Amino acid sequence: MKKAFYLHLIVFALQGISNVHSKSLLNQKAVLPQQKSDMHVNVNSLSDIVEPLISTVVSIYAVDTNIGISFNNKVSKYQQEVFLGSGVIIDSSGYIVTNENVIAGAENIKVKLHDGSELIAELVGSDNKINIALLKINSSAALSYATFGDSNQSRVGDQVIAIGSPFGLRGTVTNGIISSKGRDMGNGIVTDFIQTNAAIHMGSFGGPMFNLEGKIIGINSIHVSYSGISFAIPSNTVLEAVECLKKGEKIRRGMLNV
Question: Which of 17, 54, 105, 180 could cysteine-pair with 195, CB 3.0–4.6 Å?
């Protein structure tokens, strides 16, 4: 009898302890891991860099005059524009840099500005070894232009921006990084091409490659099909070639820092 009494007493005591413990657990507030207040997603935009640069890039066309015969056997002339590639205005007087192979064979050249206005361009000079051509336009309106940066200061891993007119789509912006420097593509003169993964397609050739300071560090020149690899002529090489072409001098390897 005493054993049964003590057994009931022990069971009652254990139930009481269990109830108290359960209430204690219910009254406790969940403690979540403390999150750092400075943790946030930082999304960078290139808009502020790109916006003033787009208007410095032009589309280049060849203007051909063709002769046709109408239904009443009258001979008529008409002009046909053929899209060639891209270029960039490099000063307020209207000098434009592009690739030599963009304008090769074109007798009459026209450029279309970002605002849609069209101007006749004069070929100042070109060099097919470096693949650089210098054009000149005359405009009564003020021209937006870009300036050269020091391509020697650019580093592998730097972000770059390419602007051009791939397939005639004016003002197309792509970006990537400098994948490598000093690439020799076997043309015999330029031995330090800048390699990039920025998308550069047909129609963007002759257009500029910018750094994040908005300076030209290269002129887009070569794309390896379906590989995502493109190459640009370094701005230091381009700038020296431009100075020679402005003076009417023939570009020789010894003149350039290549």
Answer: 180
